[in-house]
Recover the amino acids of this structure.
């Protein structure tokens, strides 16, 4: 029994030594402890084997073996803990390196915040804001002077008994049907060459206006149909009431189809064309920044790389960029800001013209025209067998505002922003020009539907419907001669603000592409030769 007990204790000791040896494989200190434990246990096992079977001797041997096993186990656990603690710093050092293949390097003296570029085409928001303010104040001042001048001229004409410009353009007006008709005495209504009854030459260039036809598109056709048919229905002078009601409905539906198609195209261009172009240009510029700033970068709001500071920019790294990255970076439109400015200006002028037409229509059909209680008084006959719109009801004015003017301005404004975004993200100069031309078809859709779908009778009715513009007659003045040129300055201010302040294609663009791409452009473009 004593021998069996000793053998069991020896086996336990050997197992403990094995455990210590296993733990020691991770560290040399553990191995030494295991060897020491084995060395300590070996004499005890040998002593137990040759020991006499006396109870006191067995108890002594067993106690010694138990103490040795306890010491060996404690040493093994201490060695294992030391091994784990020794390995933990190494694991913490490896974790950051494996978290991302691109490491953002920020030196201790840096705060990690980007600094604005000190080279290239830096934006000047204060200058732009001042320019826009001056333009708006100038426009307001010119308009104020113009209104004061018109009021003074009308007062002078009224006091001198002058014939109102454009009077007598409609049939049935007192004094005949010819423009500038005579008064009640049947005279021809001719004025002196000066334009004033007393022959004063100060107003010799005063103009006389009559009417202007509606535009031949879906908007003009809808206005002509609504005014003409509702006028006939209000007068009860038609035997085709149901047909005219149906034409009003069809014209209105065609107007809604035009606006729906324009909005649908805007959404598709934004989701499929502009979105892809923006993603590509951001990826190209991010790769350029990461390489050229040698890792001294920060991540923009869209997780794209941007250089921290100009001092980290190394133009010599451009030679080691992959060729496809060079091409994508150098064809960024912002690398040629003057070319981009002209393209966006042309596009902006095109859209501003659409907004200007809407504003003019609002002024003529809502602000300046008289209000009546019935559409029976809306039109009067004019020369050539047509009709001129002279009055509108409040309901018709509201219809013009909410279904003609506001949708047109809204669509044009969205198209202005979306067009600038898509063109700014086009990484191909020839496609930049083609896209600018192609975007125009969204604005021309109203003319396409009119020419392709509207019946000839409706087209002739649209051509015969005129708007009175007699109230727009004016004498020579700075506003009369130069006022609308301010729209061009507004377009230029918008383009400048978009490129340098509010564009979201490449937020944080550092204007660091143009200079390093100069040689690449010479090598890859033939030029004029």
């Amino acid at each position: 029994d004593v021998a069996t007990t000793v053998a069991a204790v020896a086996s336990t000791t050997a197992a403990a030594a094995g455990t210590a040896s296993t733990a020691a494989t991770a560290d040399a200190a553990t191995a030494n402890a295991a060897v020491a434990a084995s060395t300590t246990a070996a004499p005890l096992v040998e002593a137990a084997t040759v020991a006499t079977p006396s109870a006191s001797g067995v108890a002594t041997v067993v106690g010694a073996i138990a103490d040795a096993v306890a010491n060996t186990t404690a040493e093994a656990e201490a060695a294992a803990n030391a091994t784990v603690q020794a390995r933990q710093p190494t694991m913490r050092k490896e974790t950051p390196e494996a978290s991302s293949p691109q490491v953002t390097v920020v030196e201790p003296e840096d705060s990690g915040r980007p600094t604005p570029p000190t080279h290239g085409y830096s934006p000047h928001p204060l200058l732009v804001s001042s320019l826009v303010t001056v333009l708006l104040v100038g426009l307001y001042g010119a308009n104020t002077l113009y209104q004061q001048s018109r009021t003074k001229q009308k007062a002078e004409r009224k006091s001198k008994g002058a014939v109102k410009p454009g009077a007598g353009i409609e049939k049935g007006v007192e004094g005949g049907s010819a423009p500038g008709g005579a008064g009640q005495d049947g005279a021809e209504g001719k004025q002196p060459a000066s334009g004033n009854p007393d022959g004063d030459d100060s107003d010799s260039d005063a103009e006389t206006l009559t009417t202007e036809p509606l535009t031949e598109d879906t908007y003009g056709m809808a206005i002509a149909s609504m005014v003409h048919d509702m006028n006939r229905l209000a007068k009860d002078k038609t035997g085709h009431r149901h047909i005219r009601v149906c034409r009003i409905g069809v014209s209105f539906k065609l107007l809604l189809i035009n606006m729906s198609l324009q909005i649908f195209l805007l959404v598709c261009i934004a989701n499929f064309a502009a979105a892809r172009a923006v993603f590509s240009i951001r990826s190209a510029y991010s790769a350029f920044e990461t390489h050229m700033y040698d890792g001294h970068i920060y991540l923009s709001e869209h997780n794209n790389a941007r250089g921290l500071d100009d001092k980290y920019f190394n133009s010599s790294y451009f030679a080691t960029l992959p060729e496809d990255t060079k091409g994508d970076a150098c064809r960024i439109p912002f690398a040629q800001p003057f070319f981009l400015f002209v393209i966006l200006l042309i596009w902006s002028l095109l859209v501003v013209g659409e907004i200007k037409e809407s504003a003019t229509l609002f002024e003529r059909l809502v602000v300046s025209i008289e209000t009546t209680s019935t559409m029976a008084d809306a039109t009067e006959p004019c020369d050539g067998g047509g009709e001129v719109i002279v009055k509108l009801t409040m309901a018709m004015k509201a219809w013009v505002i909410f279904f003609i003017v506001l949708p047109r301005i809204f669509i044009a404004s969205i198209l202005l922003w979306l067009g600038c975004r898509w063109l700014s993200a086009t990484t191909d100069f020839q496609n930049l020009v083609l896209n600018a031309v192609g975007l125009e078809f969204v604005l021309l859709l109203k003319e396409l539907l009119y020419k392709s779908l509207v019946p000839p009778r409706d087209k002739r009715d649209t051509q015969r419907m005129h708007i009175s513009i007699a109230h727009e007659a004016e004498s020579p003045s700075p506003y009369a001669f130069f006022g609308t040129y301010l729209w061009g300055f507004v377009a230029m201010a918008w383009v400048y603000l978009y490129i340098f302040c509010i564009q979201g294609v490449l937020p944080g663009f550092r204007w660091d592409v143009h200079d390093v791409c100069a040689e690449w452009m010479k090598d890859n473009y033939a030029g004029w030769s």
In short: The radius of gyration is 44 Å.
